Structure formats: structure tokens, C-alpha cells
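User: Hi! I'm working on a homework problem where we have to compare a predicted structure to a textbook description. Could you give me the structure for the chain below?
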Amino acid sequence: MQEIQTNAVMTDRDWATDILILEKHLAVSYSVAANEASNQPLFQFIQSISEETARQQHTLYSLMQQQNWYKPEQETPNKIQTAAQQARTDQSQLPLS
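Assistant: Happy to help. Predicted C-alpha cells:
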């Protein structure tokens, strides 16, 4: 097996991006777990963890924006209208139940 050697060092931006991706995946996983909780106390516990994860994700997102590391594309009314029309088209192609 060939060994790959690199001297690459992760920057603060790399770390922040990696953690933000992880936080996004955790948010989805906690949502599924909460929906499948077998009782109310478990649901509430998972929900509280989910809310804290959302707060942390937002804080990191804000920090990354301040550093110009995360620049979401601004949506225009035309882009929104095009996406809405595509969603309607996609929906019309779904089989009826």
C-alpha cells in the first residue's frame, strides 16, 4: 500500500468549515432521533440537545460570515420564482396517491 505524505496544515477556516458541516449533519440526525423517541422525556432530552446544536451552528455560521469565510449567494426574486416554478413542475410529476 502506498503511503501518502503531506505537510498540509488545517487553517482556522478549514476547521470552522469542517465543524459547520458536522453541526449540519448532527442537526438532521437529532431531528430524526427526536421524531423516533419512544417516550416524552427522551423526546425532550433529544430536543434540548438539538436546540443547543442549532445555537452552536448559528454562532459558528455568524463567525464565519464575519471572517468572510462563508458567503451564501444572495437570492433574487427571479431565482426564487424559478425555483418555485421548478418545485411546482416536480410536484406535478409525482404520482397521485
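For your comparison, note the following. The chain has a mean pLDDT of 90. The first helix runs from residue 12 to 35. Good luck with the assignment!
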